[in-house]
Every structure is written in C-alpha cells, then in structure tokens.
Q: What sequence folds into this?
C-alpha cells in the first residue's frame, strides 16, 4: 500500500518551507558570511534592481526593498524563517547589492525639569 499523501515526483515538501528547500536556499549555511550581525529591526534597502541570474529569493528581496524594510518584515513577506532571511540578506550585503542600517533611534525625551520650566514660563506670559 502506498501513502497517498507521500507521492514522489509531485514536489511534495518542496514548496512548503521544508528543511530540504531551506537547506538549498541557504546553500546549507546557518549564518551569513558577513560579520555584521543582523537583527529583526535592521533595515534593509536595495541599491539597485535585481540582476539577471540571481537566485529567486535574492531577487525577491531586492524588489521588495526598494524602500527600507526590516529583516522581520522581509521574513514575513517571503514566508521564510528569520534565520534563512539573515543568510540571504548577508549574501546580498557581501555582494554590495543592499545596504543595512540600524532603525532610526527614538528621540530621547527632554529633561522633565526643562519641560516644567517652559510650561511655567508660558503661564507667566
């Protein structure tokens, strides 16, 4: 008896994020070649359009990052694990195809005493 859900030659397990597909996409690597660490909020922006002959996942990242996107957003849009996306983005960084930058830091709140002094001064006007 054969299992109807396990048919050979029909791509079973290939397009669904299987470990085999993820292994092929990353070339068996679990980390990027670049020494710069990428985290979930690192913003990625493409320097140009994807080139001919690029791996489909690399090209997809290049297309979607014409405007800055975080690593977490790229992962969600591609439906790939963050670990895989960091390898792919690392490849693109190494090749100079994308730029990575830290997200814009939150502005520090001014000193509370300064705010109170300004309010006090405005009330006296």
A:
């Amino acid at each position: 008896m054969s299992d109807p859900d396990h048919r050979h030659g029909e791509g079973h397990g290939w397009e669904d994020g299987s470990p085999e597909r993820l292994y092929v996409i990353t070339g068996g690597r679990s980390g990027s070649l670049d020494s710069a660490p990428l985290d979930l909020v690192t913003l990625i922006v493409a320097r140009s359009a994807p080139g001919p002959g690029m791996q489909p996942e690399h090209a997809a990242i290049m297309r979607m990052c014409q405007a800055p996107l975080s690593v977490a957003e790229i992962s969600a849009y591609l439906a790939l694990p963050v670990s895989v996306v960091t390898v792919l983005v690392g490849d693109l960084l190494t090749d100079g195809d994308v730029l990575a930058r830290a997200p814009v830091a939150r502005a520090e709140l001014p000193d509370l005493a300064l705010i109170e002094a300004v309010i006090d001064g405005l009330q006296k006007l």
